[in-house]
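The methods section describes the discrete structure representation at length, but only in general terms. An entry of this sort, consisting of the sequence and the corresponding backbone structure tokens, reads as follows:
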Amino acid sequence: MSYIFISHSTDDNEFTRHLDEKLTEAGFETWVDLHNIGSGERWLRSIQEAIENCGAMVVVMSKSARNSEWVEREALLAMDLNKPIHTALIENIPLPLHLINRQFTDFHHDPQNAINQLIEALWSLDITAVPKQIPRKLSPLPDDENFFEYLEQLPHGEQNCLIAQEIYQWAVKVFSRVDFGGKITPGFHARLEVGSVELTLFSLWAYPKQPAIQIQFQYLADYEPYNNPALRRSTLRSLNRLLNQPLDDDKADRRPTLALHEAFNTAEKLELFQEIIQEMIDNLCGV
């Protein structure tokens, strides 16, 4: 049997030591940089070789790990080599985009039960098999496949996922371009070509507590006819029809947000939003 590579942030060394001990007690061989690397100059190469030769990887996922470039690189390399990956989720955070399709165990509610589940899951793996290469390019950035699965992890996940898919599919038809971006807070952006300029009318952000659409009034204020404050305020008042608590007029000079689960929770509201945005497109294009 090959060994388990444990990827982690140094901020999580205490948990990782505990996990390492439990996996060892369960009969696994492990590789973790708490004690597998000396102080020599071969540190990077040692990690790469350890991932290449491991039978599986466990990613200890926390806020620190999610923000760690090294943890991300280790996971992406393992995925590129088609290594089995299991995530040990030790804090109440969304899984990063590149791990949402991988099996995970939630440790922050019941750690003892979680370690038993993780051990059982690892024993079910054939970690001696020769991996096959993955044909699809892997990325930690959002795209039209992983973004909506990511949304499902967040509050009101299933509802917001359906809303976001509906808005995305509509936006692709009516905008010049809809693209994805953002690693820490993923989102997509509806962009319109007006002459030689490309304007972003709205963005849909997967905010951890409350995914929302952000209307880009602040940037549109530099372009006719939305350099007219009265028109921006009029459009904001139309958008307020989607909300239980109307936004103040000063939001017409900023980037107001509309929570998905509140502003778009009926087909009628979705249709109204599309009508408002279409009117903005027509105004910008001089229709």
